[in-house]
Amino acid sequence: MTTVLDQSAMERRALRHPEKASNADAPMLRKPEWIRVKAPVSRAYAETKAIVRAHNLHTVCEEAACPNIGECWSERHATMMIMGDTCTRACGFCNVKTGLPYALDLREPENVGSAVARLGLKHVVVTSVDRDDLDDGGAVHFAETIAAIRAQSSTTTIEVLTPDFLRKPGAIETVMAASPDVFNHNLETVPRLYLNVRPGARYFASLRLLQRAKELAPEGFTKSGLMVGLGEEREEIMQVMDDLRTAAVDFLTIGQYLQPTRKHNAIARFWTPDEFSALEQIARAKGFLMVSASPLTRSSYHADRDFLALREARRHLPTS
Ligand code: SF4
User: Fold this and answer.
1) Do the beta carbons of residue 160 and residue 179 sit within 8 Å?
2) Which helix H or strand E contains 52, and what residues bound it?
3) What is the C-alpha to C-alpha distance for residues 282 and 261, in angstroms, rounded to an integer?
């Protein structure tokens, strides 16, 4: 008997981003001196890694090749990425593996709860891959994870960074019913660049998701993030800020896009630290309660201390 192996199919399966394989190679720009990161060498880093592995979890820190992992994990801040390591979308900027995901791990919410307790986190960020294959986009799994964290660490504040739940009616209601302390969904870029950067998403659907989260839990905090360096104009960022304020978003993060491989979106330019400071000032003037803008800012970077500052900022708001 002869067994015929479909070599090309096997190679496709082995690729981390099969949909990008035919993209033309984009040049990789040399990083400027202001993009410097801490090497992952500390003992706390190794302990964080051991806890993540022992609980069979994925983190966006590793999957997205985040430049801050050395610093964050040395402080035991790992951002949990639930619902597997394989994403059903194919965003042009993202390093998370794409393809057909496995079935949900039903023990995962408990495992996340237990890992958060072991890490002793006062604030945790939970994100996920996109699960367009699930009827609810994974909303129930998010809600169960929030409940499992609360059951084991009742004082830990919880921030969820969710997908857009596009065409998943009732999903945002399910997540918000679990009462996360912060609801985060990243717009990522300006609407003109969506087709290249977030081809599976729709700008106004993402904006509406944020607005809906605030309608459902006005006392909670909402947050969104942008990457710069993809070719956006300053005026376009101003427009996105205004759109986010119209959706009553409280907290804006802005960081420099870094290109994972030659097959990903190219970097148009590096914004300077002074330009980030200027963006932060403008965003604060537009009324965000909290703004974090720097080359290495990411959604979950310093999320614990930023959450405290966010709560403090609301406390000092003038009462009407
Ligand atoms: S910034 Fe966020 S994703 Fe990056 S290492 Fe820190 S916690 Fe992980």
Assistant:
1) no
2) helix 43-54
3) 32
User: Tokens 């993030």 correspond to what residue?
Assistant: 225
Q: Tokens at residue 268, please?
A: 């148009």
Nearest CA to ligand 1 atom 5: 69
How many Å apart are CA 223 and CA 158, to the nearest integer? 13
DSSP 120: T
Q: Measure 254 CA to ligand 1 centroid, in angstroms.
A: 14
Spatial distance between the Cα atoms of 11 and 8, rounded to a whole number of angstroms: 5
Instruction: Indicate if the pLDDT at residue 13 is higher than 80.
Output: no
Helix (H) or strand (E) holding 314: helix 303-315
pTM strictly above 0.85 = yes
- Give the tokens for residue 72: 């964050």
Cα–Cα distance, 35 to 173 (Å, whole number)? 39
What's the pLDDT tens digit per position in 148-206?
999 999 999 999 999 999 999 999 999 999 999 999 999 999 999 999 999 999 999 99
SS3 of 3, please?
coil
Q: Using most ligand atoms within 8 A of CB, pick from 52, 72, 75, 125 the residue to mutate for ligand 1.
A: 72
Query: What digits encode the pLDDT tens for the residues 25-44?
Result: 998 999 999 998 878 889 99
* Ligand 1 pocket by Cβ (under 6 Å): 60-61, 66, 68-69, 72, 77, 79, 298, 300-301
Closest protein CA for atom 2 of ligand 1: 300
Place of tokens 């023990």: 107
DSSP letter (8 states) at residue 18: G
| Nearest in space to 208 (alpha carbons), one of 249, 178, 238, 180 | 249
Tokens of 189: 């870029």
Strand boundaries in the chain, DSSP class E: 58-59, 80-82, 86-87, 97-98, 123-128, 157-161, 182-184, 221-228, 251-256, 290-293
Place of tokens 């500390």: 42
Dmax (CA) for the chain in angstroms is: 81
CA 257 to centroid of ligand 1, rounded, Å: 14
